[in-house]
Each structure stands twice: as C-alpha cells, then as structure tokens.
C-alpha cells in the first residue's frame, strides 16, 4: 500500500522520508498537527514488520486534533503470513484481569484470567476503586503467565492489544498502563480495542466459517446490544438497552434470592432455576408494545424484587443453602420464572432484529456472545430462533463468552491485519501521562430506522463510535 495523506507540509515531508526509508507504509493525520519522529527507524525482532517510532502532538490551535495521543495515524505493518503474527491481549475493563496470546491464524497460545468474584460476594457489586486495586495486584502476574504459557518473550510479540473502553476508567487505566509500558520498553506497536467488539469478533476465531455480514446479540453485565456486523470495525446498532443490561438483572436477582455469588450471580441463578417451575409466577414480558429492537430489564428486575419481599421467605437473612425445602422451592420458582421472561424478551427483540438485518444485508448467521451467552437456556432458545429464520448460530464456548484476554488478542489480530495499529509510545513518555481511555464508547452507528424510541437513549458518549472513527480513517 502506498498512500500518502497529510495536510500539513511538515507531516508531508516527514512521510516522504519515512516511505523512502521503509517502503510501503502510510500515515493519516489531521492538518495543523506537528509530527516528532524519533529516528532512526526501528526494525523489530521479526523480519515480517518494520516500523518507526514517532509521536504526534496537536497544535493548541488545531481544533480537529483532540488528543495528545497519536490517534489519527496508522502504520501499515508488513506481514507476510498470519502464523508469524503474535498478539498479546490485555483486558481489565471490569472485574476480571485477563491476558492471552493469540497467533494470527487463530491459534490460542495461552489464556489467563484472574477473577475478583469474591468482591461480588462481599459487596454485592463491582466497586471501581476496589476493582482497580485488584487489577493492580494481578496485572503483572497475569501478563507474565500468559507470555510464559505461550512460550514467547515480549520482544517476540508483533503487537499488544488492550481494552481502552467501554468500562470503568480506573480499571481500564491499569491495563492500558501495562500495555503502554510493555510497548514502550520493547518498541512494539499497540492496538486499542473496543471491549464489545472483542465479544463479537471472538466468534470469528471459534467459527472460521462465520462471514460478514452477520447479526450479533451481545448480552453482558453492562451491555445489551443488537448489531449488524458489516466488517471489522463497522457495525450498525439496531438496539441497545434503555436501562439495565440483562447480566445486571441476573446478578441483582441472584443477590435478592440469597444465592452464592462467588462464581457469579448469573450462573448461580441459572443453576437454581433448573429446580423451579418457570410458569409459577407470571411476569409480563417487557416492551411488547414497542416495535423496535431496544431492551429494558429494570421493570422486570423491580417486579421480581417486589415479589420476593411479598413472599414468606427471608433471602436477605437465610442463605439458600440453609433454606427449608418449601422456601428453596419458592426461590427456584422465582428464578425460573424470571429467566423465562428475561429470555423471552431477548427472543422478541432478536426476532425483529433478524427481519431488520435481512432487509439491510444478506446475513446468514446470528452470533450470541457476552457473559450471559454462556447460559444454556439463552443458547438453546436463540438456537431455535435462528433455525426458524434459516440462520446458522454461533455461540463461542462459555469461557470465551465471559470476559477474557483471547477476545482482546483476537480483535487485535483482526485490526493488525488491517493495519489499524498505533506506534509505540515515545521513550520519554512519563508513567502518569494522559491516556486515551473511553469509559463510554459506542461501538456502532445507530440505525436510523430504529430511532423511534431511541430519543430516550442516553447520549453521553465523549468519543465518536468506533465505526465512525474507522470510516473516517478509511476515507482519508
Ligand atoms: O461479558 P461479561 O463477562 O462481563 C461484562 O462485560 O459485563 O458478562 C458478565 C455477566 C454477569 O452479569 C454474569 O452474571 C453474567 O454475565 N453471566 C451469566 C451467566 N454467566 C455469566 N448470566 C446468566 N447465566 C450464566 N450462565
Ligand atoms: Zn464483557
């Protein structure tokens, strides 16, 4: 690829110099920005790529350049064969500290997760400051272990991929700092990954036959999304949640029912529901009268809470393991009834999203991913729905549905192949420098046809969506 874009004279001439030195490469940037290049060009340990280290600073007068980070440029690395690409993925957006090494051809070389589930048991939720401390304690060990298991040294990596959003800022910061320090020392490129794209794209690692375009339902603790995936980095958002995500509803209900949260609220509720009658209590299915693809779980969660307090059970005092048979049965019936309606709501919205997506693109597959997609009832019901519409279904194995480093490393591979990588941080970058973290970051562009109720959606995003950013890059 030989494209040279740069609106400012200085950048133009520096680029020309780089191309002379390096051969095929390109860089895109805003006008009125200043480029500082640390020369000479560095060549990596692997002869499959060659990059120079450089930094882009924004002139104070430049209104377009938003960051002190080199956000608006790309180097295209020269990669001959996927087997020669080794990406380390780091994930710290919520309560799991995870790292993995994945090869460009999809071979998983290592995966390590350190969970903070005891925080759920102790505090009933994720507390950012406590989670940050947990990540800080675990991160070095988790990353070293991932490299050790993969049998690779930092210098043998092609790049480091790290979640930069969405998630808790304090937690994201731990992973991003680690990634930046590794890439700074070992002069490696890095890739900022969107956590939800990680959940979606990991399906392409586990199912190599999965081709774009496809419909994807993402169900996790913080997000509920229906997306038409058009290509890597390009999504149309058909629906999102207007309030709580389904995972949050599972977690809160599990807590109200006095379940053991040490392995997560969702799995505990799923297990108890096996003992219950799912029609014992009749909760209404949310949003049946609203003809769109958005979700709402707050009402269901509140109705379940009210039902629990109206029953002759004391889950806040009596733990499920100490409850008598009658009490346990009531709790199991509540769990099963909640789950039936929560999953029905997913089916309703997916049913419509399949119709919408089919009218927009020749989709052949439905992907279901995110923590809640490890639930057997969710997988089975959505499998039936996909079959009804003549679609294949892809659900990654449960360990890759919940947060993990593999999905971040693999998303790194996908972007690396497209050349969407950032150069290593400057050698003199201080540890406490500004970091490009995106706690609220939309993945796709909202589907105009689905905007009827979307007016009530919170629009507090500080960053353009990943899709909008990628489209700007490819049009420059
Ligand atoms: O994707 P994930 O690991 O983290 C986020 O990005 O939020 O999802 C975590 C959520 C939690 O709410 C957890 O309770 C839920 O996924 N979850 C489940 C199951 N396994 C995990 N919910 C229902 N059934 C499960 N088996
Ligand atoms: Zn997640």
From TrEMBL:
Q: Where in the cell is it found?
A: Mitochondrion
Annotated CDD domains: ASKHA_NBD_OSGEPL1_QRI7_euk
This protein's cofactor list reads:
a divalent metal cation
Q: Which Pfam families match?
A: TsaD
Co-factor binding comment: Binds 1 divalent metal cation per subunit.
Q: Which SUPFAM superfamilies match?
A: Actin-like ATPase domain (SSF53067)
| Reactions catalysed, as given in the entry | L-threonylcarbamoyladenylate + adenosine(37) in tRNA = N(6)-L-threonylcarbamoyladenosine(37) in tRNA + AMP + H(+)
Query: Carries keyword Transcription regulation?
Result: no
Gene Ontology molecular functions:
metal ion binding; tRNA N(6)-L-threonylcarbamoyladenine synthase activity
Q: Which family does it belong to?
A: Belongs to the KAE1 / TsaD family.
Q: Which PANTHER family match?
A: TRNA N6-ADENOSINE THREONYLCARBAMOYLTRANSFERASE, TRNA N6-ADENOSINE THREONYLCARBAMOYLTRANSFERASE, MITOCHONDRIAL
Name listed for the protein in its UniProt record: Glycoprotease 1
Q: Which organism is it from?
A: Ceratopteris richardii
Gene of origin?
A: GCP1
């Amino acid at each position: 690829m030989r494209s040279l874009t740069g609106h400012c004279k200085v950048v133009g001439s520096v680029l020309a110099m780089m191309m002379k030195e390096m051969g095929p490469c390109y860089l895109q940037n805003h006008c009125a920005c200043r480029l500082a290049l640390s020369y000479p060009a560095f060549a990596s340990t692997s002869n499959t790529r060659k990059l120079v280290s450089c930094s882009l600073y924004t002139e104070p007068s430049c209104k377009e350049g938003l960051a002190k980070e080199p956000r608006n440029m790309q180097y295209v690395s020269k990669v001959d064969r996927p087997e020669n690409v080794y990406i380390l993925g780091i994930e710290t957006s919520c309560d799991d500290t995870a790292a993995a090494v994945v090869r460009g051809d999809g071979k998983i070389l290592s995966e390590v997760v350190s969970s903070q589930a005891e925080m759920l048991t102790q505090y009933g939720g994720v507390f950012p400051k406590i989670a940050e401390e947990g990540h800080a304690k675990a991160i070095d060990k988790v990353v070293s272990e991932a490299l050790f298991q993969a049998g690779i040294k930092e210098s043998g990596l092609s790049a480091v991929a790290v979640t930069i959003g969405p998630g808790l800022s304090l937690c994201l910061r731990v992973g991003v700092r680690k990634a930046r320090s590794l890439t700074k020392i070992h002069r490696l490129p890095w890739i900022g990954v969107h956590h939800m794209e990680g959940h979606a794209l990991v399906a392409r690692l586990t199912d190599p036959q999965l081709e774009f375009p496809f419909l994807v339902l993402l169900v996790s603790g913080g997000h509920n999304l229906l997306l038409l995936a058009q290509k890597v980095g390009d999504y149309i958002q058909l629906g999102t949640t207007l309030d709580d995500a389904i995972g949050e509803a599972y977690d809160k209900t599990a807590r109200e029912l006095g379940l053991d949260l040490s392995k997560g609220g969702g799995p505990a509720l799923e297990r108890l529901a096996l003992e219950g009658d799912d029609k014992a209590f009749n909760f209404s299915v949310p949003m049946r009268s609203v003809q769109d693809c958005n979700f709402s779980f707050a009402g269901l969660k509140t109705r379940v809470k009210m039902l629990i307090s109206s029953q002759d059970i004391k889950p806040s005092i009596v733990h499920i393991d100490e409850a008598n048979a009658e009490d346990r049965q009531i709790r199991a019936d509540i769990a099963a009834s909640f789950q039936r309606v929560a999953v029905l709501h997913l089916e309703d919205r997916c049913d419509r999203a399949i119709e919408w997506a089919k009218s927009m693109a020749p989709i052949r597959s439905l992907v279901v991913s995110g923590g809640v997609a490890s639930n057997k009832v969710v997988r089975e019901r959505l499998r039936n729905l996909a079959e009804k519409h003549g679609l294949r279904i892809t659900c990654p194995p449960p360990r890759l549905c919940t947060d993990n480093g593999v999905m971040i490393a693999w998303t790194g591979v996908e972007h690396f192949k497209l050349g969407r990588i950032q150069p290593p941080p400057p050698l003199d970058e201080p540890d406490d420098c500004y970091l490009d973290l995106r706690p609220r970051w939309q993945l796709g562009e909202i589907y105009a046809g689905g905007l009827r109720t979307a007016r009530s959606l919170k629009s507090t995003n500080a960053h353009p969506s990943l899709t909008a950013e990628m489209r700007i890059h490819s049009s420059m």
